Amino acid sequence: MANTNTPFGLRPVKKLTGCCPNFQVTKYYVPSTDATAIGLGDPVKLAGSADADGIATVTRCTTPGTDVVAGIMIGVQPVPTDLTLNYRKASTSMYIYCITDPECVFEVQEDSVGGALAATSVGLNANLVLGTVDTVTGNGKTMLDSSTANTTSTLDVQIIGYKQGVDNAIGNYAKILVKLNKAQYVNATTGV
To answer: Could you tell me the pTM of the whole model?
Structure first.
């Protein structure tokens, strides 16, 4: 069965250690001065500030291989005037919730640019490629950039394996399991 090209961002699936799928979630603030929409599954980075209550501000990652990921957005604080809103609208002051757990394993679709990832890519690192936000589903369209798979330590994610299931096969648009390689809250990282 051929894989379908339906990017959905990064989805949490399990932890590297243990079987308990409890992930550390952090509330962040995105001010109205930020003109970029953020979808479910999109990576965010610290913006170097906080709101009046001290909640850290974030912005959507923009530079694969350079940005240090603070978290992956999994939800928004409900907006009373629009309870159907499930993504962070551009230029709108909102609170978002992100998985910041460095032990989290995510599922992400590869983009197949330059060809599909091979089975020998497991264990390599790769960058993410950012897409637009689907304003109907709320999903970000972040994908794994298959053309960047390499041993380079500064790439965004590490490839853990392939999602197992009848809806996935090695080949174009495969669903890949990854962990963040450049996470804000692990080891020694540069402040913002």
So the answer is: 0.92
